[in-house]
Specification:
Two copies of one chain form a homodimer. By secondary structure, chain A is an alpha/beta fold. Helix content of chain A is 51%, strand content 12%. Chain A binds chain B through residues 1-9, 11-16, 18, 211-213, 216-217, 219-221, 223-224, 227-228, 239-240, 243-244, 247-248, 251, 256, 259-260, and chain B through 1-9, 11-16, 18, 211-213, 216-217, 219-221, 223-224, 227-228, 239-240, 243-244, 247-248, 251, 256, 259-260.
């Protein structure tokens, strides 16, 4: 067991019509001028943006707006947001959307709080000392950014996608109404479920020293997501299943599922990152497509964890050798991914990287990780290439 | 499933020697003058108080001190603390101890932040609008006060024991070093485990509408506490078991295990409260002594929850009728309590209330609850009396 810290200051307001409380929650933050930050048409079409505007108006809070956030949120829009917010005297950012919108809001909030180029943070040449307060009205269960310390921004020039983690940007409040996720396409819903599972599993598959209470909470969370994701395939409007997944999404990435572990593995995320750099694939689908190959490549080095996962999460009977049980757990996970129409190979994902492209991906992946990555098994460039090749051969 | 809010702003710093960071953590709160609040000799004898003093001194933070907190912390000491802290210009309270010390610190912090008698809050004649910031160095795993919104204070005059819940008093940070709990007597350790379990179980046994992810997290927590408590009977210095229990104690009462339920039951706590009013019994032991009788009295009205508890927490085989399984779960829980030397009846607790005393306890209990209490089954005065009589007849 390792020492840990946990800091989850976000005030969660969860339930039907929770967005009606946005005015009150912003007001409690003593905000004078709010930047409402959002993405594309869906929050406009659904009427959510209007409801948020109305709530702020009724609460007597002035606001300005910036839409246009896209998946893999762009640095150029972050700069635009900083400029606009400075000109307008904004002192609070309200993100209305999913992970990309929240991440973009975090970057703007960092940029407003201090002098200097905010991209420095994402290049890790300095650390932030301050961050404007942020609030969230969540419309998508996936990234967990609504409670997390992380944000990922893409610089268009050179297509550099970089992450910055800092407790300072954890949102002050997160409004979560599961109903707001009901109109998502099934594919996006399933991608979100995979992302949530991976945030948990990448903290779970470590080389040892985990805490029993953390492991068992992680297993509980994973079982719930699996069960609820299957429900949503048949009944996308099922409130309870939407709610279970939405709440799991926050708990999966706010730190709770990593308490006492050695920091986690996160190789699947790193491997997928390069796939996303080369192809326009949805993050969750990319994770599902690579996970099985990663698992088969590493499981022998982390057998007791894969065995435990198989039995406690995937319900595999504890008969046979540890290796047999572990492999059955991997197979059951892949079968689950397919049952929610997620890919488990490059072919199913619809990509066909050449050998040279895979070599390039492995090179970039190991470079981004500073040479190697992983805890269940430490992966070097050759290992990464081997995993890509396995996913390509399926 | 019910709507919920969760607000857990406490920065948790968990692990060996974590108390060495107290200076840095207090400094991060911009504190100028700290009141170190503590209980009796144990934090002095162990050298912990000296280490805390040294850490503040090294961090350049001025402090004053007030010891003497006793179990069922007293209003008179709270008043004394408020007076002292006002005179000394205290702007931060550091509780070094267990639940009683933290609760006393919370009351002092409320009293310092606003004009008026702080007892008003505990009498519920007004709500707090402010509270001085609090930090915690935890020495006992039980009440969960280190992350909770609650505090319980006893007014000596008339021996009135009252609770006040308010997010404002959630500690800013909680330093948790499991090693600090190793010297606790076995009886107190076991009492803490029962208290932690009850905080979870009283949120679990409700009349319905629970959230699956919350239920399964609660079950994970309970299984971990049971397993670890048994380890500590044989090996009181086992760091991992101490750590599992310490972290479970915080999670059991910070709100996480109640997300999406209907507010919980809390009848066992209410029933025990009156036993504690009449006899000098340890809170956890009192809870263990009454729980089985409560469970047998109410389980038929909440059969699906008792059945689930039996299978998922106590490991009862799912054979037989729901009623048989539920009863086996209750028996297994009592057997567990006895295995850690906790009582499961009034006789084992060492109390022998007369019929008149039990009638009086039931009357006070229902009055304190505003007439009735409970969710698994709503209990009125006659029900409460019946439960006391059951525990007395065992």
């Amino acid at each position: 067991m390792f020492d840990f810290q946990l800091y989850t200051p976000t005030h969660v307001v969860f339930g039907r019509n929770a967005e009606a409380r946005v005015g009150e929650l912003v007001k409690a933050q003593d905000a004078k001028k709010v930047l409402i930050h959002y993405g594309s048409g869906s929050v406009v079409r659904s009427g959510l943006l209007d409801r948020v505007r109305d709530a702020l108006y009724v609460a007597g809070i002035a606001y300005t707006e910036l839409g246009g956030v896209v998946p893999n949120p762009r640095l150029s829009l972050v700069y635009k947001g900083i400029e606009l917010a400075k000109a307008e005297g904004v002192d609070f950012i309200l993100a209305v959307g999913g992970g990309s919108v929240i991440d973009s809001a975090k970057a703007i909030a960092f940029g407003l709080a201090e002098e200097g180029d905010v991209w420095d943070l994402y290049e890790h040449t300095r650390s932030a000392k301050a961050c404007l307060p942020i609030g969230v009205v969540l419309t998508l269960a996936a990234t967990g950014s609504e409670m997390s310390m992380g944000s990922v921004i893409t610089k268009e020039e050179g297509w550099e996608k970089r992450a910055y983690d800092d407790d300072l940007c954890r949102p002050r409040f997160a409004i979560m109404n599961p109903e707001l996720t009901m109109t998502l396409p099934a594919y996006q819903t399933a991608c979100g479920c995979v992302d949530i599972m991976m945030h948990t599993m990448e903290r779970y598959f470590t080389s040892g020293g985990n805490m029993e209470i953390t492991d068992s909470i992680a297993e509980a969370l994973l079982r719930t997501v699996i069960k609820s994701a299957k429900v949503l395939v048949e009944k996308p409007m099922d409130y309870d299943a939407r709610a279970e997944i939405m709440w799991a999404g926050s708990l999966a990435h706010n730190g709770l599922t990593g308490c006492g572990n050695n920091g986690g593995d996160f190789s699947s995320h790193m491997l997928e990152h390069e796939m996303g750099g080369l192809y326009d694939v949805a993050h969750g689908a990319g994770l599902a497509a690579i996970w099985g190959s990663w698992a088969r490549y590493v499981y022998k080095d982390c057998l007791h964890r894969f065995r435990r996962f198989a039995v406690n999460v995937m319900g595999v009977a504890a008969n046979g050798t540890d290796e047999q049980i572990a492999l059955q757990g991997i197979e059951a996970t892949e079968a689950f991914f397919r049952s929610i129409h997620m890919p488990t190979s490059f072919a199913e994902l619809g990509i066909q990287p050449t050998e040279a492209e895979m070599q390039d991906m492995a090179k970039k992946c190991s470079a981004a990780a500073g040479g190697c990555q992983g805890s269940a098994k430490v992966l070097y460039e050759a290992d990464m290439l081997a995993i890509y090749q396995m996913a390509a051969a399926l």
